[in-house]
Amino acid sequence: METLRRLRGLDEARRVLLAQRGIEPEELPPALLERTRRVVGEVRTAQEAVERIVAAVRERGDEAVRELTRAFDGVELGELRVSQDEIDAAARRVPPKTYRALEAAAERIQRFHTRAKRLSWIDFTTEGGALGQLIIPIERVGVYAPGGRAIYPSTVLMAAIPARVAGVAEVVLVSPPGPGGSVADALLAAARVAGIDAVYRVGGAQAVAALAFGTASIPRVDKIVGPGNLFVVLAKQLVYGRVGIDGLPGPTECLIVADDSASPRYLAADFLAQAEHDPLASPVLIVTSEAVAEAALAEARALLAAAPRREIIEQSLAARGAVVVVDSVEEAIQLANEFAPEHLALCVRDAFDRLGLVRNAGGVFVGELSAESVGDYTAGPSHIMPTGGTARFASPLSVDDFVKITSVFSFGRDELARIGPPAIELARAEGLEAHARAIEVRLEDRSA
Questions:
Q1: For the chain, what is the mean pLDDT?
Q2: The dihedral of CA 364, 368, 372, 378: what is its sign?
Q3: 343 is known as an active-site residue
Q4: Sheet harboring 121-124: ordered strands across?
Q5: Four-residue CA torsion sign, 173, 177, 183, 187
Q6: 398: in domain
Q7: Structural domain tally of the chain?
Q8: How would you classify the pairing of strands 121-124 and 343-347?
Q9: Active-site residue among 253, 276, 299, 343?
């Protein structure tokens, strides 16, 4: 906690905080670099390594997937697909209380996304034409679920259920294998609750490549969603265009705006909760009261002493944590809009009155009882949200990520007579005579 940055004023905070946005650096740690070189040859960066991994899977399919899994995960794979018997057995091994919690979360997630689902529409005009949109589900989606430092069965629900609500015909899951080639019981239980069609014991960049290009065992998908490590993020970036992706999620971010009415204990609890995700998580507290800031830090020290993931939290606080004191809530939200955090908490008086000031955030937690941790599990909206400042232009995962919009055009004769001539003029202004004539022949036919 003593290494946590204390920043004062808008200018200093802006300079420091905005410099830390973005995904992990591409330079590989020495130990990982050595192992990667043994597998793919001489490389200097993660980008080079991922390019070779993706190329290997594209060229050699299952053979490359098994080889890379053996090298990176130390697992000798047999069948890549997890059998239904394995999934059912894993679901039985999960504590009943945990399974019921997965079902409760799934029900909330499904209800929220059903409410958000868009429908096809066509409006017929009085001039004999029509315009509209067809909302068409994507056919096949691949979900990536991390399985390394921590497992996230909640992510399986948060990705797969919106896809199901959108009408996706087939949803498959990939996740790194553990010892013996097994996928974590909790992930398999979540896959069962979410109604996933198939699970494959493959992770890393090789899993992304397999989903993008297809192999003998793993079907090619139309879109890949879900968070992962640096190799996964870079692989998604590399295959984009051949398949769709939801984004390039990086380490989690939590930005809390508080005034002198906020509970220091609540602030400290939220601050540490997001920090325990990852050493590169960004926990930031912006507060208008020096006294509340100091009280929150004192509470955080007390909570940290008993935290099981204390080492990760301390690394996160030292690398990307900050406590900022500003003059007003308006200044705090201004800074939050520039930072564009994944999670934004408004722990201030009349919090809903301030909601209209927010422009850039993945999710806004309004009022100090609105713990961000609930949003991670049982609130309903997906917890897969934009990070690294991308909330300036990106949105959380939703049913909209799993549909395509097809425009519908139909013109009656009277309507064509009205909107055709300006279209002809614009076509000729662009030097496209054939475009203009395609309209004119119809108008000439009408007057004949």
A1: 93
A2: negative
A3: yes
A4: 121-124, 130-137, 403-410
A5: negative
A6: no
A7: 4
A8: unpaired
A9: 343
Give Cα 2 distance to the centre of its chain: 32
Q: Supply the pTM of this predicted model.
A: 0.91
Question: Are both 121 and 239 inside the same structural domain?
Answer: yes
Question: Is residue 93 situated within a structural domain?
Answer: yes
In the prediction, which pLDDT does 43 show?
A: 79
Looking at the structure, tell me whether residues 262 and 215 fall in a common domain: no
Using one digit for the tens of pLDDT, what is the confidence trace for 237-295? 999 999 999 998 888 999 999 999 999 999 999 999 989 988 889 999 999 999 999 99
**Sign for the pseudo-dihedral over CA of 152, 396, 160, 170:** negative
Q: Which long-range contacts (CB under 8 A, 24 or more apart) does 406-412 make?
A: 406/133, 406/134, 406/136, 407/131, 407/132, 407/133, 407/134, 408/122, 408/130, 408/131, 408/132, 408/133, 408/134, 409/130, 409/131, 410/129, 410/130, 410/131, 411/128, 411/129, 412/125, 412/127, 412/128, 412/129
Q: Quickly list DSSP for 147-212.
A: BSSSB-HHHHHHHHHHHHHHT-SEEEEE----GGGPPPHHHHHHHHHHT-SEEE---HHHHHHHHH
> Is residue 334 domain-shared with residue 268, that is, in the same domain?
yes
Domain identity same for 261 and 298: yes
**Catalytic-role residue among 342, 368, 372, 383:** 342
Distances (CA, A) of 146 to 177, 202, 204: 10, 10, 9
Domain of 442? 412-447
Is the same domain home to 35 and 17?
no
SS3 at position 254 = strand
For 120-148, give the DSSP string: -EEEE-TTS-EEEEEEEE-SEEEEE--BS
